[in-house]
Amino acid sequence: METAKIFMTGRSQAVRLPKKYRFSSSEVKIRREGDEVILSPISTEEALEAFLALPKCPDFELDRKAAQQLQERDLF
């Protein structure tokens, strides 16, 4: 069985994974099963679903009229 180093970063605990166990993504799912902590990659579909589930921010939504005005302006 291989091992990994545990260290503190700020007030959080982190694990340094050996090279052959590295993930290609920047985030993983985490769950606990008994005494085990299991990390799993997040699929593209799951990431998209999570993004689409976020609440909409009205500050960043342009109404149709404002969007048309932006498109119709002269460049020069």
| Molecular shape | elongated
Following the backbone from N to C, one meets helices and strands in this order, namely EEEEHH
Strand content: 25-35%
Domain unit count: 1
Q: What is the count of DSSP helices, taking H or I runs of 4+ residues?
A: 2
Low-pLDDT stretches are none
Overall pLDDT score: 84
Structure description:
With about 80 residues, the chain is α+β, with helices and mostly antiparallel strands. It has one domain (about 5-70): Pemi-like Protein 1, Chain: D (Ribbon), CATH 2.10.260. It has helices at about 45-50, 65-70, and strands at about 5-10, 10-15, 30-35, 35-40. The strands form two sheets. A two-stranded antiparallel sheet has the order 1-2. The chain is elongated and about 65 Å long. The mean pLDDT is about 85.
Short description:
This protein has one domain: Pemi-like Protein 1, Chain: D.
Could you name the key traits of this structure?
76 residues, alpha+beta, Pemi-like Protein 1, Chain: D, 4 strands, elongated
Topology record:
Elements: E1 5-9, E2 12-16, E3 28-33, E4 36-41, H1 44-52, H2 64-72
Antiparallel strand pairs: 1-2, 3-4
